[in-house]
Amino acid sequence: MWEDEERLRATLRTEVDGPAPAARTDLADVLRRGRRRVLVRRAGAVAGALAVVGVVGGTVALSGLAARPAEPASGPDVTTTAPPPPWTTLDRAARQPYGTFSPAFSAPPPVDREVKAVPQCDLAFPGPEVSWLHPEPGAAVQNAWSTTTGQVAAPGRASPVHSHLFPANLAKRPDSVDGHTRWIDLTDDRGTGSVSLERGSASVPPQAAADAELWAQGNCLPPRRMVRPNGVLLQLYPVRVSEPFQSLTQELRVYAPSGEVYSISLRNFGSPDFRPQADGRAFDRTGPGRETLPLSEDGLTAIGIAVADAL
């Protein structure tokens, strides 16, 4: 665990244990879009623009933070891309930022990286509706997550699945349980990032659970949503810039009618950039990672749809 929200989650875990319209986009459609983009890249299309950060009319514009697919080339032999997945933007007012991101002197980004001075909002303290005790993810979910990650990573490389067990704090809470996290490193010519999988649980229906976590990522803008035919709700948060090293994360949470909740987090850092603490209950960041996220938003969406459809 790392960064502000992970420290908050770890603290809560220690204390506790020791309607959007239905989407019509199938996982196959999203994967086809990814394959089309690979064909476009191989056809010699030009990659996207440099990173630009701005605030216009209270809306934060973050471009260049995620791995961007190439713009489609023209011509009879080039396949063009399909429209983006049908995310629905929630009709909620943006929150008032308390300031803008500024890296700490103790862990600044590399000198060749532009500082992303984006608006910052407080992490919302979670309520009782959703619990993040990190039980073992279900086998079907693990398979959908890892298989789809390998597919959308191409032409980059996806590592085998890494896992870590957070030991129960039996000295403090005899009824505490072990927690689990999994991640896959994603590497291309820009460096290594990762995508993680963690499990929680909800005591309320999917929409109420998602409502309870609207601002869970310290986001100033409301998240977007998608509902699958099986009633599983997906909630996609904006890219977050945080300490240390100007870390980039984009989280997608999956809420099932069964009460299962999953967090899929795309990060600009991977195994070379962190290590577990001596007691195994948290991670220390040791490296800055890559400059951008290792997948596009479409790639993260494909992983989320696969997990949702496995529930």
UniProtKB/TrEMBL annotation:
TM segment ranges: 43-66
Keyword terms of this UniProt record: Membrane, Transmembrane, Transmembrane helix
Top-level taxon in the UniProt lineage: Bacteria
Stretch list, region Disordered: 68-92
Protein's recorded name: Putative membrane protein
UniProt source species: Saccharothrix espanaensis (strain ATCC 51144 / DSM 44229 / JCM 9112 / NBRC 15066 / NRRL 15764)
Phylogenetic lineage: Bacteria, Bacillati, Actinomycetota, Actinomycetes, Pseudonocardiales
